[in-house]
Amino acid sequence: MIQYIFRFIPASVSLVWVIVSVSVLLFLYFQLCVLNRREPPGPRPLPLLGNLFQVDLKRLDQSLFDLSKKYGPVFLVNFGPKKVVVLAGYRTVKQALVNQANEFGNREVTPIFYDFNKEHGILFANGDSWKEMRRFTLSTLKDFGMGKRISEQKIIEECCWLIEEFDKLQGKPFDNTHTISYAVSNVLSGLMFGKRFEYQDPLLQAIVNRDNETIYLTGTASILIYNMFPWLGPWLKNWKALMKNMETGKTDLNKIIAELKDTLDPDTCRCFVDVFLTQKQNLKENDDTHYHDDNLLYTVMNLFAAGTDTTATTIKWCLLFMAKYPHIQERVQEELNQVVGSRQVCVQDRKNLPFTDAVIHESQRLANIAPMAIPHTTSKDVTFQGYFIKKGTTVLPLLTSVLYDESEWETPLTFNPSHFLDKEGKFIKRDAFMPFSAGRRVCLGESLARMDIFLFFTSLLQHFSFTPPAGISEDELDLTPVVGFTLSPQPQGLCAVRRQ
Ligand code: HEM
């Protein structure tokens, strides 16, 4: 029948039909592509400024968490001219960082972090150099006992020094910020340089205090603005302070590295730096090697910067929660009395201390010290939950929205160790406990940090009770964080009162 009809239609008309049909098909195909390339939703941006007036730069993570309630788990905000995709909620963050680890696993190198690292080291590097430095660092630190018995002994030794230091204060109120950072830094120093410093050593104090200041300054509003408009740099006080910190930091670490170089014996490597230098010597002839002085310096700087403030801040939050909730502190101490008694606590004890373990996990959850992880970028064009995200787009995995996810936690905004306990009081792991992030860029020092926090916290609670200073009630202790690149407790005096 159709053949019969076509026999009577002139050839020119059939050609028109073909052209029209092909055009319609092409139109539908492109429409489909546009639909597939749908950008995530988000607040309408202003030209040049983007959504700067719709977010609170002083508490960006909270502000983005609020926006996620309106726009959903994948949304787009414009920081100045730059598009940023925000991932919110446990399911979405996990789906991106773990299930699509390669697509979401590159690091965003913002102008300030480019100034710091020039894309060397681990934290703010990508590609083959990052891969090699991350692999080498993980395996070398493991060889030196990271997360194993050898580092346990080193941490225990450091706990004794810290307890001695707290004892000197005889229960008077003090800001524990510096002392705890020195102790944590010494554990890293043992691994990196094979030595510990006295807490009064000006070099240790300079390195730690400078790092703390740097981490605070990098999270300030003026540096967020610098990242959008880098030409503003020389006019910004915080940027100038950061550049100065960076230069003096490099000089100090280069001095320590030079001493190790002068006394290097490749047959008996004492520490991470020795292993790196030996590797560098062995690969001398190879032009393409990643084992050069810049990678050594920036990797060491990265580990101190990423490892000291984060761990020390977490321990400080744990102690503040104990002072704020004395009935919980008493339960931890009772459990320690029953299981450990007066001997030195060790990692093996952890499995017999479910309540204490739950308190540590709950402190980390509520403290939420790295609220936006460290920004990622997409390594290729990707379609995610139906939205198109272009290669190279900045992605913020909003850890605040994971650690406070209402569909995962029974009471997300209150301190509640039961989040990590079953009905019989046994410790339970929770998938949405993600303070170290997840996937390809997951924290490299997680096992060391977990050991540090457990041993320092339990050793301190065996010897001391933490209380507010006289005249201040528990209710008056302030849990509002100081916002920098990490969230840390307000500097407020706590008393470390000796237990009998
Ligand atoms: C409580 C302590 C710590 C917390 C909460 C923490 C948290 C984090 C987070 C959230 C990230 C970003 C992950 C991402 O981009 O998705 C990270 C990365 C990193 N952390 Fe930690 N961290 C801690 C301790 C440490 C320690 C002790 C070290 C060093 C020994 C360390 C070394 C690093 C490094 C090198 C990276 C960058 C990894 C990469 O880009 O490949 N961290 N950490």
Automatic annotation (TrEMBL):
GO cellular component: endoplasmic reticulum membrane
Highest taxon of source: Eukaryota
Main location: endoplasmic reticulum
Binding site for heme: 443
A Pfam family of this chain: p450
Membrane-spanning ranges: 12-30
GO MF term list: heme binding; iron ion binding; oxidoreductase activity, acting on paired donors, with incorporation or reduction of molecular oxygen, reduced flavin or flavoprotein as one donor, and incorporation of one atom of oxygen
SUPFAM superfamilies membership: Cytochrome P450
Locations listed in the record: Endoplasmic reticulum membrane; Microsome membrane
GO BP annotations listed: aflatoxin metabolic process; organic acid metabolic process; xenobiotic metabolic process
Keyword field contains Heme: yes
Protein's UniProt keywords contain Protein biosynthesis: no
Keywords, comma-separated and alphabetical: Endoplasmic reticulum, Heme, Iron, Membrane, Metal-binding, Microsome, Monooxygenase, Oxidoreductase, Transmembrane, Transmembrane helix
Cofactor section: heme
InterPro entries xref list: Cyt_P450 (IPR001128), Cyt_P450_CS (IPR017972), Cyt_P450_E_grp-I (IPR002401), Cyt_P450_sf (IPR036396), Cytochrome_P450_fam2 (IPR050182)
PANTHER family associated with the record: CYTOCHROME P450 508A4-RELATED (PTHR24300), CYTOCHROME P450, FAMILY 2, SUBFAMILY AC, POLYPEPTIDE 1 (PTHR24300:SF319)
Similarity section: Belongs to the cytochrome P450 family.
Protein name: Cytochrome P450
